[in-house]
Amino acid sequence: MQEIVRAMNYVIEQGWAFYWGTSEWTGAEIIEACEVADRLGLIRPICDQTRYNILDRSRVDYDFVNLYKKYKYGITAFSALSSGVLTGKYNDGIPDGSRMSIPWFKSILSNGLEEKSAKAIQLAEIAKEIGCTLPQLAIAWIEQLDENLRALEFEDKITPEIRAKIDTIADVKPELTKVQDNVHQMRGKWQ
């Protein structure tokens, strides 16, 4: 970790960047990086690029909770549609030409696909109930409304009752995902 922190600070010292952040790191890894930076008097990472959506939110809602206050850590969320699962396109399997039809993507993204697709079907019913599409519901849920302005029409329809239904279907529990495990394996090859 010290090597990573020093390398990122070198990039900043050279004027190639003003700050540095992480992508898909665990809370423990980020804390370690911040502690190393503090110990060495270097610049800490300031944010993590992490997936955040109805089905994938353990990191943001649970793992990072202490980071926000203690380190003033930020996030840059991505994968609002859970790699396409929340569009419904994987409800009947993996279509040819889709991202998950590519072996490399399939190996890291398809873990739990059937379960997530089953949840997407249930979430589509809630979307229908409030008069929008599943992708619009997914975007409105995370309040990333500039991504899809039409979602503004449905934001107020996501009442506490609708949110409770969504949470029941999503059944989110803090856990490492297969993607995180694969990222850790890839990092191990580079270190």
TrEMBL record:
Domain NADP-dependent oxidoreductase, chain residue ranges per copy: 1-145
Swiss-Prot/TrEMBL keywords: NADP, Oxidoreductase
Keyword hit for Membrane: no
InterPro entries assigned to the protein according to its UniProt record, in alphabetical order: K_chnl_volt-dep_bsu_KCNAB-rel, NAD(P)_OxRdtase_dom_sf, NADP_OxRdtase_dom
Keyword Magnesium: no
Molecular functions (GO terms): oxidoreductase activity
Pfam families attached to this UniProt entry: Aldo_ket_red
Similarity comment text for this entry: Belongs to the shaker potassium channel beta subunit family.
Protein name according to UniProt: NADP-dependent oxidoreductase domain-containing protein
